[in-house]
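user: can you give me the structure for this one chain? tokens are fine.
assistant: on it. calling the predictor now.
[tool input]
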Amino acid sequence: GPAAPPGTLMLLYRRRWGLFYLPLIGLAALPIVLIATRWAPLPPRTLVLATGADAGEAAALAERYRTELARRGVQLLTVPGAGAAPAPLLRLANPADPTQLAFAHGLLADLGPEAPVQALAVVGLRPVWVFTRRHGPEGLRELRGQRLAAGPPGSPSRLLAQALLAQVELSPDDVDWVERPATDDAAARALLAAEIDALVLIAAADAPPVRQLARSSGIHLLGAQRASAIAAREPRLETLVLPQGAIELRGNVPPQDLTLLALRQHLLVRESLHPAAQRLLLDVAWTVHAQPGFLQRQADFPQTDGTDFDLSPVARRHALGERPWLERLLPYRWAQLAALLLYGVLPVVLGTLALLLWIPRFFSLRVNALLAHHYGELKFLEAEMAQAAADRPAALRQLLLRLDAIELQVVALDVPERFADRWYTLREHLAAVRERLLSVRGR
């Protein structure tokens, strides 16, 4: 029989828009909102980069990133890092800070607090430069008793300076440590003004302070003695050879080949940064850093091998050539929007449409079942009528009462208009059975 009383079924059908259609459409908006904000949100349209203390070099690099990101529809904001060198990393590690990406060299991997910071790639090398106003045959030994600026105690530049001094058997007490100016440009000016006697810089090979000091009269660039021995004990250090005349061929700067220590420079992001934004940054890094430059050949960087920070899983898959197929076909912003519509919104819309189409089918099935129920009762009554006419004529009165009850139920049905033809057909069959029953009873 029917699952619900006929009156209840018809009441539900008449109120189907308020009870089924509109609530279902409203509920469909909830998963779409959750998908767009929680499960598969669109990547941010704005990224925040911490530039660090070396404002000149960092600003130039940030400008190149800003230009490339703007071409892809993403705005880059920069926040300066004040104070010590690890400031960008510390900002990136602070969940309350808006910073989303930063550049940091390998020795800073131990200076930040425990935080979800990951590397996208190594984007270059930052040599360790030692500039001095005095230069003699003893090289770094000439720093004994000199005013040396190399960063605050515990900073990477101070640790590297102490390691270099140890290779020439000088202790930290053999030099006069002075407070290093906040920026590389200011430190270079301090050395040129004879406010300090020597300076240890960690900077890119083409950084303006490096080029200025290397070409300045009375300033000498020193190589790292036993650099390979230092790098062997510290895997985050590399050695590189600065060829004679590489800085200035006509002026023969440097006057001979120099071996320098170098640190790997990383592009760092928060672990929570949207994977699509990480892939975008990797694309920009290839555009910015793959060009040949001073001490760098074509496509030397970026690279994912040998990172000193934990490598992002997104960068690992990117290095293997794995990439969403939509990003291969569409521009960056359109690819993200298409992915949201295809994998998030479209399934919800299709599911909602399927339910909206199923609701009228459900009512059709129930009304059909209700009508079929009365047809079945009528069929049983006809069978009993034929038997009673032959064997039990007195039972015909009970059959007539049952027929009246069925007809009353059918007349009381409030079926939808599209089922009116079947309803009228059922009433015609009831009338035909009544005529036959009355004719048999009258014999």
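assistant: here you go. The longest helix spans residues 332-391. Strands lie at 46-50, 75-79, 101-105, 117-132, 147-149, 176-178, 198-202, 220-222, 237-242, 258-270.
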